[in-house]
Amino acid sequence: MVLNFFRRAESVAPERKASATGRVIAWGGSGRVVWSPRDAASLTRTGFSGNPIGFRAVKLIAEAAAALPLVCQDRDRRYDVHPVIDLMRRPNPGQGRAELLEALYGQILLSGNGYLEAVGEGGLPLELHVLRSDRMSLVPGSDGWPVAYDYSVGGRTHRFDMTGPADPICHIRSFHPQDDHYGLSPMQAAAVAIDVHNSASAWSKALLDNAARPSGAIVYKGADGQGSLTPDQYDRLVSEMELHHQGARNAGRPMLLEGGLGWKPMGFSPSDMEFQKTKEAAAREIAIAFGVPPMLLGIPGDATYANYQEANRAFYRLTVLPLATRVTASVAHWLSTHLGENVELRPDLDQVPALAAERDQQWARVGAASFLTDAEKRMLLGLPRVAEGD
């Protein structure tokens, strides 16, 4: 009898239908912040392709660094003709030196990692190619050092073996305090500011598109001050507003009111006005993360530097030159292992227009130092060393 009771209770129980994943759905409250993904591909879309400040900052740094003249030298001499110079002049059939280096600097700024591929076996590479950072993955060995790199495209993977006498891949990475194999990009540091800037731009765009939101309100009082519109009158008013007073083409068009309708003008609220300031503050944070003076990006309200020339000089001294010096030194060391002799690649500071005044002062100051030998003066100016008797 007890069993029959439970059977009856089971049979009359209401049927419940629910998704098997319902228990793991996280119900979000209102006002929860939504951030964009932090992987390299997503950051490139939102911070470079979809943000004018990030785009201009990356382009400004990459183009300036790629345009720096390079000198090739060793311990004893500076070369005018050298196989490394010829290789860098035309690294592959589709790119020149500036195009290759701009792509390399851009990858480092966007992802924190830059990869150069050497084409050719034995001796100096025949060609150099920049590989996309989002397609490359490092394969660590038992000791933690990379033994291979996997390059994946369209479901196919090619492995570069790093255990030979000369590495086929030159991996240049930015400093990352919490990752042993991959670098930290300025785009990752500026991700929050990029989201804020993009959201403020989207809000401004929606405000412009929504010209239905007038700078005021239509008030209907009726004959006794308590009247209300009929459904037909309301529909006609809404239709008139949509047809004749919305959109950019109707901006500023006068409105004809009848039947007791009145207009009550309203301005922007303080919260509306704060969006522009928030957008400018986010743009300034993006520029700071990349090391570009906001003045060079046209961001208003920044008076850190006395003039544009001083800002440009600080941009080269603090951002462009450190990046170019680090990258060219890594490339030179990598090519030296292929070549079998030590060569040095570095920016020629004497040919940088933004630093012309500083270099003139340094040459005059070093040249006037009578207590220094010629060899010491050459070393201070970054020239190859020579013997004391030469």
Explain what the structure shows.
With 390 residues, the protein is an alpha+beta fold. The chain contains 12 helices and 11 strands. The protein has helices at 2-12, 40-49, 52-66, 83-89, 97-111, 186-189, 191-209, 231-244, 270-290, 308-339, 356-367, 374-380; strands spanning 70-73, 78-79, 113-119, 127-131, 136-140, 146-153, 156-161, 169-173, 216-220, 261-265, 344-347. A hairpin with a 2-residue loop joins strand 6 (146-153) and strand 7 (156-161). The protein is elongated.
Element-by-element helix/strand order = HHHEEHHEEEEEEHHEHEHHEHH
| Lateral arrangement of strands in the main beta sheet | 2-1-11
Structural class: alpha+beta
DSSP E strands, number: 11
- Main sheet, how many strands, which sense, barrel? 3 strands, antiparallel
Number of helices: 12
Mean pLDDT: 79
Rg from Cα: 32 Å
> What best-fitting shape do the alpha-carbon axes yield?
elongated
Query: Roughly what fraction of the amino acids lie in strands?
Result: 5-15%
* Helical residues, percent: 40-55%
Q: Which residue ranges are poorly predicted, with pLDDT under 50 across at least 5 consecutive positions?
A: 16-33
Distance between the termini: 116 Å
